[in-house]
Amino acid sequence: MNAREWLLTLNLAATAAMTGLIWFVQVVHYPLMERVGREVFAAYEREHVQLTGPVVGPPMLVELACALGLVLPGVLEGRALVAAWVALALLGVVWVATATASVPMHARLVNGFDPAAHAWLVNGNWIRTVAWTAGPRSHALRGPRRVAMVGGLATHRDLDERDATFGCDGALGRRPSFGCSRTHRGPVLRRERFVRHPQRPEHGGRRTNT
User: Fold this and answer.
1) How far, in Å, CA of 79 to CA of 56, rounded?
2) If DSSP codes are grouped into helix, strand and coil, which group holds residue 195?
């Protein structure tokens, strides 16, 4: 994969990971904090803050770095670039909500359970939950013609460049066969071509998948 494809893959992977994590936090983890005994809550919260940072920090930084890289000039264009800006804007919402709501509320809870701070933490976290959930959807807006999608799918332009050098069969100097990728528009999930077998001409060949 080229640099653009790595950015897309890492960005989507980090966003998907954080989306799953934030839903667990929103539905299970934060609401159950009020069930922790008041006499041990301060110690619990201190350990919670210390242990959470190393888990969420790396994927958040990877997601941010990739999101910034995707909007650099020349990386994406057209509809894909618009989607990248949308994803970056959503990520900006996440970081602002983290800095202005989540971090301050955790700082208050370190001193002991505070019902008001806990309520702010749970309700304010919905901002991050919605923003992170919308993040993977923005990837679907990226046009298939110019952007290589996750999973090894080739773009129309990439296929054209490969076919021009190797032919549709990927072998240098061979003539394009039936099912040439130029006949497709957008990502190619599977290509079908008609292969003739000289040793069995009576069958007229058989259809294979490549």
Assistant:
1) 30
2) strand
